[in-house]
Write a structure and sequence with these properties.
single chain, two-stranded antiparallel sheet, 531 residues, elongated, 2 domains, alpha/beta, 14 strands, TIM Barrel, eight-stranded parallel β-barrel
């Protein structure tokens, strides 16, 4: 038993350390639909002052690209919808664009992504048939100059690309977009590019406040949570629900391995009289909670622990944008570069706001003694089945099997589901068979999950995130962790070997930091794997 615990602890240490080496990225969208913004050089300086590492722009403006030279800020540049016709018709058009707008400034300006088209399903002119040919031509142009593996090509979408987004497990793409979506998804898989989507919980709340609570939209710990009836997963915030609706839509088309990247999300700080949710406090709350959610690699209920890269909209207010008042007031900064509200970009500051993945403060969920055995059995069956709870601990000869009573077994299963799904009231429902308590129900060697416990056990995390069997031995798990780590390090090493050398005196690379943290633990895990 001691060896099993040691192996599990060592494996967990690896996961913890690897988590510090990965981590979701948080960037900013730099829109320029305004006539009062500071020049690109001042913007680049502001971005560096704020320690922002990733910036999305919507075109390939030369002055902007030049401004970010030698800053280490990674740019995502865009090909506007208006250019899709020219880009799709002739390869020479793309080659010329690359030669004039990108190559003269690369790699002094770090460009990591090119978005070809933006929310094309929302375009007043139908350009959907042009986007994939344009993407292929951009890829061909990059390949000619040897940059096709250094700059990733994709295209951004609105949530309107779905015909259904609720419940998340029923997420489905609009069939009328199949003619361009399928070849696009195939292109993304072939080139290991992410599916990019712009998500706005604000609009879900603003358009239907009676169905979407403000707490749910803002990642508030007071959110009651929503259960997906098909999966039993509990959603404590709208952002996760929207991300998972995309994931399930991709899975329905057999593209579940595609990574999802959020290329726009945010909250307006000002709006018209009817836009009561558009306030500086709400904008600060949403973006602060979002950053924490990303930095902590909270993942989503369907993909716990999955890192998600996010770009917050937007750096500045844009006074020339048409539409209702809020359209011009998404900025974190005013044109004079003063902050409209404060944001902790590290996601670890002392902000009095919790993420949507909140945990209980010393509460557990146990079976009620005032309901029928049928109700308890139904709840137990559901938790250990559709609820995705690991009920092995209440099997014969396991720590929580005794006492062999329905109430005891149901209590363990109810609490596991409760803790793994946000520790909210709704997660302790079970049709009235569950009840919350502040008394720890653990006994002897049977330990109940408690506040702060990860959503999934170590085994469940591997099974769900890495598709590894839960029945593997500790030795297999430990050795597989080592293999995955070394494989990842090898990939980074190969990539870094072709990158521009770091200047003398610069801080250690991410790879070097990871190796420093991880290599001392390698012998322990390997030894435990063979014990």
């Amino acid at each position: 038993m001691a060896r099993r615990h040691a192996a599990a602890v060592s494996a967990f240490l690896f996961l913890l350390l690897v988590g510090h080496c990965h981590g979701g990225k948080t960037g900013i969208c730099y829109g320029r639909n305004a006539d009062d913004l500071p020049g690109p050089d001042k913007v680049a300086q502001l971005v560096r002052q704020q320690s922002i590492k990733y910036v999305r722009i919507y075109d390939s403006n030369v002055d902007v690209i030049k401004a970010f030279a030698n800053t280490s800020v990674e740019l995502m540049v865009g090909v506007p919808n208006a250019d899709l016709l020219a880009f799709s018709q002739y390869q020479s058009n793309v080659d010329t664009w690359l030669k004039n707008s990108i190559l003269p400034y690369y790699p002094a300006t770090v460009i990591t992504y090119i978005t070809v088209g933006a929310e094309i399903t929302e375009s007043p002119i139908n350009v959907s048939a042009l986007v994939v040919p344009a993407m292929r031509n951009v890829h061909a142009a990059l390949k000619k100059v040897g940059l096709h593996k250094k700059i990733t090509i994709s295209s951004t979408h609105s949530l309107g690309v779905l015909s259904r987004s609720f419940p998340p497990s029923a997420g489905a793409f609009n069939s009328s977009y199949a003619h361009f979506l399928k070849p696009m998804l195939e292109f993304l898989v072939e080139n290991q590019a992410p599916f990019m989507v712009d998500l706005y919980p604000y609009y879900a709340y603003q358009n239907s406040p009676s169905n979407v609570s403000l707490n749910y939209a803002l990642f508030s710990p007071q959110s009651e949570g929503v259960i997906d009836p098909n999966t039993g997963l509990v959603y404590t915030n709208m952002f996760d629900a929207q991300v998972d609706s995309i994931f399930f839509a991709l899975m329905a088309l057999n593209f579940k391995t595609l990574k999802i990247m959020i290329t726009e999300t945010g909250w307006p700080h000002k709006g018209a009289a009817k836009e009561t949710g558009a306030t500086p406090d709400n904008a600060q709350t949403y973006n602060t909670n979002l950053i924490r959610h990303v930095v902590n690699d909270s993942g989503t209920p369907a993909k716990p622990g999955e890192e998600i890269d996010v770009y917050i909209f937007s750096l500045f207010n844009e006074n020339r944008k048409p539409g209702i008042e809020s359209e011009r007031n998404w900025g974190l900064f005013s044109p004079d570069q003063s902050s409209i509200y404060s944001i902790d970009w590290t996601g670890r500051g002392n902000v009095d706001i919790m993420t949507g993945g909140n945990r209980s403060n010393g509460t557990w969920c146990v079976a009620s003694t005032n309901v029928s055995e049928t109700a308890l059995q139904n709840g137990l069956n559901w938790a250990c089945g559709p609820g995705n709870v690991d009920c092995s601990a209440i099997q014969p000869s396991q720590p929580c099997y005794q006492p062999d009573t329905l109430v005891s077994h149901a209590s363990y299963a109810f609490n596991s589901y409760y803790q793994q799904n946000g520790a909210t009231d709704v997660a302790c429902g079970f049709g009235g068979a569950g009840m919350r308590t502040t008394k720890d129900p653990s006994y002897d060697t049977c330990v109940y999950m408690a506040a702060g416990y990860k959503k999934k056990t170590l085994r469940s995390l591997f099974a769900n995130v890495m598709n590894m069997p839960t029945y593997w031995s500790d030795q297999q798990f430990a050795l597989t962790i080592v293999f995955l780590l070394l494989s990842y390090s090898s990939k980074i090493s190969t990539k870094n070997s072709t990158a521009t050398p770091a200047p003398s005196g610069s801080s250690p690379s991410l790879l070097a930091q990871c190796r420093t943290l991880l290599l001392p633990v390698l012998p322990i895990v390997i030894a435990l794997g063979f014990l």
